[in-house]
Amino acid sequence: MVSKQDAGRATISEIALEAGVSVPTVSKVLNGHAHVAAETRARVEEIIARRDYARRPAKRSKKAGLIDLVFPGLGSEWALEIIEGVERVAQEAGYGTVVSSLSLDGSRIRPWLANLAERKSDGLILAVYELDPKQIRRIRSLGIPVVLIDPVGQPGPDLMTVGAANWEGAYSATEHLLQLGHKRIGMIGGREDLQCSSAREDGYLAALRRAGIRMDSALMVPGDFSTEAGEAGTRQLLSLTEPPTAIFTGNDDQALGAYRAARAAGLRVPDDLSVIGFDDIPAAEWVEPPLTTIRQPVVQMAETATRALLRHLEGDEELPQRIELGTELVVRGSTAGAPKG
Q1: Which residues have a Cβ under 8 Å from the Cβ of 142 and sit 6 or more positions away?
Q2: pLDDT in tens for each of the 341 residues of the chain?
Q3: Cβ distance 200 to 237 under 8 Å?
Q4: Residues 117 and 111: beta-carbon distance below 8 Å
Q5: Model pTM?
Q6: Please, are residues 159 and 126 in contact by the beta-carbon 8 Å criterion?
Q7: Which domains, from first to last, does the chain contain?
Q8: In what order do the strands lie in the sheet with 322-325?
């Protein structure tokens, strides 16, 4: 049963009354001011979270010249390319970039939102996040525009997203292997919670269907986009009674793991096993043999997201709902005709 006190949208006065503090104290907590006792702040924060209070968007009369760029983690080539693209466009327009690594789950989101409000950033770019409705409302309460790059899941119609054509890229990768004469093509999937993983899997299956090849579930193994998952998945595929002659690894890091597993099994790439990745990370060119892959325009995705955000900030246009950039098949030395026999 929901109490009358917990029903509906809370006001600052109601929060202050329940917490036993003044309205200005609640305002200080909401705006991230330091001069509030820790015990009082914790009590107010708990009530704010429980009552799902959403601060009214502030009217922004003056630009701060700042864009916040936030990731769940920064330890990847992908993140570095996103930062490169965002900072390039932002600097050209005279904006600074604040880069953060943050989980938006749990207790950290509210202090982060308070800090974001305190520095009065003009816009927010989130990379690889899945937002629930409550998180969206909290971020929207800041009154600043938000863009998602390569989001997890479906963020809904009220947020702009920028991504790559993952389905088409996976279709092209599989079609390339089919044209080389491969009929048993394995696939190592990506993280299950990522929208791009399911799109790449669907593209792989669509190419097989069009070629008249029945899906073999044994040829599809799970992964998580890590080198270790690529190695483990390839070992699993090579242990089949009838192993594949080619593997679409889902991304380039897993392709590097596939190379390692193939070497351990005494197989040569591409003579005995063709391997194709997805992303075109810098390492794809200098591994031996150089990796055939699908080039994902990561830097361009970041630049596109930032330009759209800046145009919106300058009042030129509304943010579109979705921008999807094309991928490109890059043929190198890791794919060849299917082995005879």
Answers
A1: 55, 57, 58, 113, 116, 117, 124
A2: 334 444 455 677 888 888 888 877 877 777 656 567 778 877 887 787 777 665 554 444 457 789 999 887 776 777 888 999 999 999 999 999 998 887 766 666 777 777 877 878 889 998 866 666 677 777 777 778 888 887 766 555 567 888 889 999 999 999 999 999 999 999 999 988 777 899 999 999 999 999 999 999 999 999 999 999 999 999 999 999 999 999 999 999 999 999 999 999 999 999 999 999 999 988 999 999 999 999 988 899 999 999 989 888 887 667 777 788 999 999 999 999 999 86
A3: no
A4: no
A5: 0.72
A6: no
A7: 12-51 (no CATH), 66-164+299-326 (3.40.50.2300), 166-296 (3.40.50.2300)
A8: 96-101, 66-71, 123-127, 146-149, 160-164, 322-325
Bridge-based pairing state of the strands 160-164 and 322-325: parallel
- Which residue type is seen at 191? R
